[in-house]
Write a structure and sequence with these properties.
single chain; about 220 residues; alpha/beta; 5-stranded parallel beta sheet; 5 helices; 20 strands
Length: about 220
């Protein structure tokens, strides 16, 4: 039987002696295609989680801290983000239906091809970039050479950080990296991580931080 990403199997939900399912804190995990329904995630910290293709319904994220997470094709239905702190996240092709964002703090986040009209009382803070369509990146031979080499990196490939199914590039993440690194240094930094396992590089932000760490080593 193929690998699944059911939340229960990954022990992300606690049920024992509680009237409502409680979401446990988590960090650096690939939780694609997860489904959370009627869960309490109040005051929890979620760092560098990849929720690609996941679905959340009636989840209470009030006062939660959500940092460095990836939400690609993720849906949120009647979720509560009141007073939540959301930073360094990527929302790509997401769907929000009747979600509360009262006094939520959102910064250093990228929102792409996502209608936020279903986010009640949302206020976007500093350094939030909203793009109406999927961006492209600046092509260069040295960059494309290392991107081809990184197709053999198991985890970067698995987490779809630089490549998408069908041998397509993840243009959004590459676009974001090109905003952080110069055309000369980005290919060199990517070469430096090409031979590593990179098992903790679960999201775009973790990849960016890893490249910044490599830059400091130079």
């Amino acid at each position: 039987m193929g690998q699944t990403y059911r939340i229960d199997r990954l022990n992300l939900i606690t049920r024992k002696r509680r009237p409502q399912k409680v979401v446990n804190e988590a960090r650096c995990r690939y939780l694609a295609k997860s489904q959370l329904v009627k869960c309490n995630a109040q005051n929890k910290h979620f760092d560098y989680l990849n929720f690609r293709g996941s679905h959340f319904k009636k989840v209470d994220f009030s006062f939660a801290k959500i940092s460095g997470c990836d939400f690609w094709g993720t849906s949120f239905n009647k979720c509560n983000f009141s007073n939540a702190y959301i930073t360094d996240c990527v929302f790509m092709g997401c769907k929000f239906i009747d979600c509360k964002f009262d006094t939520a703090h959102i910064e250093y986040t990228t929102i792409v091809n996502t209608n936020i009209s279903g986010c009640r009382n949302i206020v976007l803070g500093k350094f939030v970039e909203v793009l109406s369509q999927y961006p492209d990146f600046q092509h260069a031979s040295d960059l494309e050479e290392v991107l081809e080499a990184l197709k053999d990196n198991t985890n970067i490939r698995k987490y779809k950080l630089l490549h998408l199914p069908g041998n397509k590039y993840n243009r959004l993440n590459i676009y974001l990296l090109q905003k952080k690194f110069s055309p000369e240094e980005l290919p060199k930094l990517l070469w430096r991580i090409s031979g590593k396992s990179n098992k903790n590089l679960t999201t775009y932000k973790k990849l960016e931080l890893e490249l910044k760490a490599e830059k400091r080593v130079v």
